[in-house]
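Entry: EamA-like transporter family protein
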Amino acid sequence: MQRLPTVRDFLTLLGLSLIWGTSYILIKWGLEVFSARQIAVLRLGISALALAPFAITHLRRIRVRQLPVLVLVGLTGTAIPSFLFPIAQTRLSSSLTGMLSSLTPLCTFLVAWLIFRNRPARNQVVGIAVGLAGAVLLAYVAPGGGEQTNQLVYAALVLGACLCYGTSANLVGNCFQRLPSLTITVVSFFLVGLPALVYAVTFGGIPETVGEAGARGWEALGYVTLLAVGSTVLASFVFFRLIQGTGAVFASTVSYLIPVVALMWGLVDGEAFALLQLPAIALVLIGIFLSKRN
């Protein structure tokens, strides 16, 4: 039964935004040693390892005909974004990537509209348009090592990851209304993470990379482990519990806080920030606000 948010719920929301907002700087630090592909398979594999004690119990609740859709949920909700974000961050700053990831709520509405034929309200259409315009401006004016056009190309990868998240959310909403959210999370993560774990320890070249890098290799492995256990597994559990207790509207306000945390981490790590990014961020947040208004 849902209730009004308490002080504890607000603290949980803040903690959740800190965990998810920190994930982009962890990817950046991991890229100092590992390739984008290695970070992706490590993140998926370590997540599967962390979920292994729960997997057997939750797999028993799944019917065979549900497995293909759950694999698709795992691919769109975890696997594909795990590759797209590190690839994008080979050219984009961690703060810019984190700010662009706030497009996920807008992408969820967009996928529901275009693929699942859920007719949006007028304010949702306006919100999607305003938010996407803000994202393009944000990527274009952001300071970086390459040209603006190049940054837009890699920003499109982040948009692709957000569209994946939106697809996953819509699949869950349309196909698994009666299945507990914890079961969906555990099973979908485990199904896509187990093959990645096998690849990581066999053909991924990860032990060799860690050995060659020495102490820096183990440090980078620690960052990716925090990314997998904290940002992927722990944060998902906390988020779903928050939804069950307070409702999706309150829990989804984390979308407003994640970009702020990502920006703060970027500034601490010496990343550049342009004043023109402020109105762009405002447009994105206004778009999210408009799309969520009843």
